[in-house]
């Protein structure tokens, strides 16, 4: 969380606490008042001011080429110092992946004029060294009028990226690359931000990790310099293709789409200007290390991006898909015990109890408040959770209390041990960097230091001896600091008793300071006030506000300016490694607020400090879909809303919506009204109802998640990704799919009792079944259907052609896993269906045995062509699951003959068939599958 949103009038930092008021420098968190470059009418246009480059010394091989780029005129030094010579490397890394890298030719390690992201921090993908001629991506270049290049799709000739008519600008603190784009292009990604799924053609995407409670359209916690570009083409009568703007599509015509992805492997603050016919990518340091992914489907782009480049998402433990309850306003263990008792009394599923910073002793990490959160009571509480199949996840921040050396509160062992191991970030001169945060003045672990991971592990492990957590929630890791610079350096000793307190930070810095624009001095790097001012969300757009400042220094001399966006990424890795030791053998569960490209290989993410309003409920969908593209499928938001008071109607709708997100947690801000689902009768009912469905579908969700973990497929999906040939879906983000088979259309408007939704694929013969009625929807193609959706209901549809593996709902996932199986088969228009199931022990990193089942149904014998309706289950793997098969429900059945299971007749009293609804239910399978539903291959015929 950030501080509560209370109005603060004066531009100073306040600590509001009964016992102490900390002394901070005046204006401690206000920073300089900078005008962001994009709003500055006098800003230099680097495109007209700068000379570009000329390529020479071209060397071409089968796998790519290299060249030297020299400045094609006088240096412009627009926002830094021009680099006079660059090395260009173009590599066909795979048939569907191309790398274009531009780095300064002479990297002088003693002069930190520029910083190239090392592979030790952010690995590069392995090159398969494809042959240029085999790649679907083609690189061409020209020196006229200065060096420019194109990336085209070889199979179609589509120009994917084209810098013709622009100059490349490469300075120590400013890089600019411009490409033309087709009219009304569809771009997705470039997060993290609160925005619709499709970015639009007139938008500026600024990225720099920031502790900020989900304001719209600006940079927030995470950093993902990746976009997906989807283009639609009309298929003409002669088989040729014509590009069309998605929004002009006409339902009577035929279209196809092709997608590609672009990743800029660069960790500096960035700004991407999306304009009607071009994209301008700017960064304030590093190099140009671009990766193109050919697709041509979104699924191929996303999978390639993860599998080759950033890493596949971590597999999660089964329990993490249960329901999580959190609140930043639980004053003691008694309250948590009462919450658990309430869930039990109302028989609402509860899987995991969370602790926000309430539990800490004066907001110090790794220490419980001895009065309200004593260790012995905690041990008993967590023990009883574990005995009842539940878990406990507490928060830990990377902001570490710095004891006043002259005070009487200097006894803080985690700090002492960290100091001994020398693990804190420092000031440029070598003194410890002392910022401010929840505990008062704070220091920050330096993840570049070889001792830091071991210190972090040790602190978590020591504390974990008393508090047997099941996962760790890492917050404030942008990394947040509530004052500018090392504010504690001069004040910490003057403050007699600085210690835990609430504090608030002035956000109003606009009143006094005059605009400060730094004029670049050749050869000098100004990291405090970089000459190019990104439109950073914090007051004054100052990079030093709300975060550890850019000049904080790591043990290897690297400054935060160059690695700020990687702070959480490294902390997440450190936490992952620690959890593998503290909870040996089990998949670490980590929830991180700040993320970088690749954080998904270790952690889950939640949407941060959202607001309890309808807009933020809607925005949770595009936010989740964006994180599908970023390879962080374990995503959810603070259900019912974090800041501000929720209400019964909103919380009802939101509890139902979030039930279809992989990570399902209700969390609340201090000072807001309580919002556990039992606070209102209608919310209790709606939650129990929808959790019953979610829990029954957990085998489907877990299987999807395993697919994501092994192949880079997505869990929550945009309609446009599953139905790529329908341009009208390009911006749809008010409804979504869970995997390929379930579509959710939530009510997102206050007071509404109906919702409009589209049913994709109808014109191509797709059919959709209502999940509750189990009947086919009679809907038209390409139009909105209005669906009656009273409070307490959410629209849920099964796609024809699906087989959904299910179990019985229960109050905890442990009991779901021990219940009989069932299958829900939804036949397609031509009577077929398929699906799969993955089963393992649900927790181990390394599995001794796993189980996979493929399901296939058809209603025509493929060999004889005769009518024969069967569902086949083909089992592979040795994992022992002894739960029997309870029943099979088949939707869309037009006739029923003899029902047999592996040749054994199923008694007629075990069969229910409704000719009108076309639903066939086959019960009575328990006896036939006593040793387990997946003990052997089987066939069910009807
Ligand atoms: C683009 O956005 C800017 C700033 O929001 C606005 O002033 C301008 O009119 C927009 N241009 C177009 C073509 O929509
Ligand atoms: C990009 O497009 C914008 C608006 O269409 C235009 O003003 C600008 O000059 C273009 N940039 C370049 C480098 O062509
Ligand atoms: C470091 O950055 C802070 C915040 O911008 C600034 O106040 C301080 O003067 C800087 N220190 C040095 C040595 O540049
Ligand atoms: C993660 O941490 C481990 C252990 O410290 C280290 O070996 C590995 O290189 C790190 N991975 C990344 C991508 O930083
Ligand atoms: C359906 O309604 C939504 C608004 O709820 C609208 O954005 C969308 O364009 C409509 N789709 C069609 C196919 O009419």
UniProtKB/TrEMBL annotation:
InterPro entries: Gal_mutarotase_sf_dom, GH, Glyco_hydro_31_AS, Glyco_hydro_31_C, Glyco_hydro_31_CS, Glyco_hydro_31_TIM, Glyco_hydro_b. It comes from the Eukaryota. Its EC number is 3.2.1.20. Residues 712-804 form the Glycosyl hydrolase family 31 C-terminal domain. The keyword Iron does not apply. Belongs to the glycosyl hydrolase 31 family. GO terms for molecular function: alpha-1,4-glucosidase activity; carbohydrate binding. This is alpha-glucosidase. It catalyses: Hydrolysis of terminal, non-reducing (1->4)-linked alpha-D-glucose residues with release of alpha-D-glucose. The keyword Hydrolase applies. Residues 313-704 form the Glycoside hydrolase family 31 TIM barrel domain. Pfam families: Glyco_hydro_31_2nd, Glyco_hydro_31_3rd. Keywords: Glycoprotein, Glycosidase, Hydrolase, Signal. GO terms for biological process: carbohydrate metabolic process. Residues 1-20 form the signal peptide.
């Amino acid at each position: 969380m950030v501080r509560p949103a209370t109005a603060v009038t004066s531009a100073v930092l306040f600590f509001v606490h009964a016992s102490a008021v900390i002394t901070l420098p005046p204006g401690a968190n206000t920073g300089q008042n900078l005008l962001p470059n994009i709003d500055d009418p006098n800003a230099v246009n680097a495109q007209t001011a700068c000379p570009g480059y000329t390529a020479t010394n071209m060397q071409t091989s089968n796998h790519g080429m290299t060249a030297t780029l020299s400045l094609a005129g006088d240096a412009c030094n627009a926002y830094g110092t021009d680099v006079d010579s660059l090395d260009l490397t173009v590599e066909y890394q795979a048939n569907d992946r191309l790398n274009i890298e531009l780095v300064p030719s002479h990297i002088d390690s003693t002069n930190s004029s520029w910083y190239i992201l090392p592979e030790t921090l952010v690995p590069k993908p392995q090159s398969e060294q494809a042959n240029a001629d085999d790649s679907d991506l083609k690189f061409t270049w020209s020196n006229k009028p200065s060096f420019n290049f194109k990336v085209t799709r070889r199979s179609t000739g589509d120009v994917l990226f084209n810098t013709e008519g622009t100059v490349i600008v490469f300075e120590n603190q400013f890089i600019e690359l411009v490409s033309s784009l087709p009219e009304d292009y569809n771009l997705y990604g470039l997060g993290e931000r609160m925005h619709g799924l499709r970015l639009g053609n007139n938008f500026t995407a600024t990225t720099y990790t920031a502790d900020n409670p989900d304001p719209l359209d600006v940079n927030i916690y995470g950093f993902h310099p990746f976009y997906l570009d989807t283009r639609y083409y009309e298929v003409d009568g002669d088989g040729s293709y014509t590009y069309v703007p998605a929004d002009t599509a006409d339902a009577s015509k035929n279209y196809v789409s092709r997608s590609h992805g672009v990743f800029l492997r660069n960790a500096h603050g960035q700004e991407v200007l999306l304009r009607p016919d071009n994209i301008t990518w700017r960064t304030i340091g590093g190099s140009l290390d671009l990766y193109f992914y050919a697709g041509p489907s979104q699924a191929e782009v996303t999978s390639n991006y993860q599998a080759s480049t950033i890493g596949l998402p971590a597999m999660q433990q089964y329990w993490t898909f249960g329901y999580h309850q959190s609140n930043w306003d639980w004053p003691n263990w008694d309250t948590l015990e009462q919450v658990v008792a309430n869930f039990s009394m109302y028989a609402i599923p509860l899987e995991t109890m969370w602790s926000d910073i309430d539990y800490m002793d004066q907001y110090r990490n790794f220490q419980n408040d001895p009065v309200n959160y004593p260790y012995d009571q905690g041990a008993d509480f967590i023990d009883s959770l574990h005995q009842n199949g539940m878990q406990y996840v507490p928060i830990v921040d990377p902001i570490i209390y710095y004891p006043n050396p002259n005070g009487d509160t200097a006894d803080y062992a985690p700090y002492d041990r960290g100091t001994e191991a020398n693990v804190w970030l420092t000031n440029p001169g070598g003194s410890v960097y002392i910022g401010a945060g929840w505990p008062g003045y704070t220091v920050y672990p330096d993840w570049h230091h070889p001792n830091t991971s071991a210190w972090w592990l040790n602190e978590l492990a020591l504390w974990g001896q008393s508090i047997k957590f099941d996962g760790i929630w890492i917050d404030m890791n942008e990394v947040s600091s509530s004052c500018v610079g090392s504010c504690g350096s001069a004040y910490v000793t003057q403050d007699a008793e600085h210690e835990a307190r609430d504090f608030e930070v002035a956000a109003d810095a606009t009143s006094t300071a005059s605009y400060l624009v730094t004029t670049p001095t050749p050869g000098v790097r100004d990291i405090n006030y970089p000459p190019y001012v990104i439109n950073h969300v914090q007051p004054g757009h100052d990079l030093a506000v709300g975060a550890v400042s850019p000049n904080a220094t790591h043990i290897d001399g690297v400054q935060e300016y160059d690695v700020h966006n990687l702070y959480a990424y490294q902390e997440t890795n450190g936490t992952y490694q620690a959890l593998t030791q503290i909870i040996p053998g089990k998949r670490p569960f980590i929830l991180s607020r700040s993320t970088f490209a690749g954080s998904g290989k270790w952690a889950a993410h939640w949407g941060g400090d959202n607001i309890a309003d309808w807009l933020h409920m809607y925005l949770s969908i595009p936010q989740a879909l964006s994180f599908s593209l970023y390879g962080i499928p374990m995503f959810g938001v603070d259900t019912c809303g974090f800041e501000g008071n929720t209400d019964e109607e909103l919380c009802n709708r939101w509890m139902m919506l979030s039930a279809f997100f992989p990570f399902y947690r209700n969390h609340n801000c201090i000072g807001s009204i309580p919002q556990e689902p039992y606070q209102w009768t209608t919310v209790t009912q709606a939650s129990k109802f929808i959790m019953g469905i979610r829990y029954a579908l957990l085998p489907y969700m877990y299987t999807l998640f395993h697919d994501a973990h092994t192949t880079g497929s997505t869990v929550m999906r945009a309609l446009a990704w599953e139905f790529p040939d329908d341009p009208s879906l390009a911006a749809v983000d008010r409804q979504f799919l869970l995997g390929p088979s379930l579509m959710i259309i939530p009510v997102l408007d206050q007071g509404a009792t109906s919702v409009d939704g589209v049913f994709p694929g109808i014109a191509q013969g797709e059919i959709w079944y209502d999940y509750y009625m189990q009947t086919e929807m009679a809907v038209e193609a390409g139009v909105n259907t209005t669906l009656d959706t009273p409070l307490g209901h959410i629209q849920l549809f099964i796609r024809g052609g699906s087989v959904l593996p299910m179990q019985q709902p229960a109050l905890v996932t442990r009991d779901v896993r021990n219940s009989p199986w069932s299958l829900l088969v939804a036949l397609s228009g031509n009577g077929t269906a398929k699906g799969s199931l993955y089963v393992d022990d649900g927790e181990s990193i390394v599995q001794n045995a796993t189980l996979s089942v493929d399901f296939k149904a058809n209603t025509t014998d493929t060999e004889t062509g005769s009518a024969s309706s069967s569902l086949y289950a083909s089992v592979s793997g040795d994992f022992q699951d002894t739960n029997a098969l309870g029943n099979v429900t088949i939707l869309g059945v037009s006739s029923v003959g003899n029902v047999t299971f592996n040749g054994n007749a199923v008694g007629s009293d075990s069969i229910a068939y409704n000719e009108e609804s076309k639903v066939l239910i086959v019960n009575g399978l328990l006896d036939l599958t006593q040793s387990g539903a997946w003990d052997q291959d089987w066939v069910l015929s009807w």
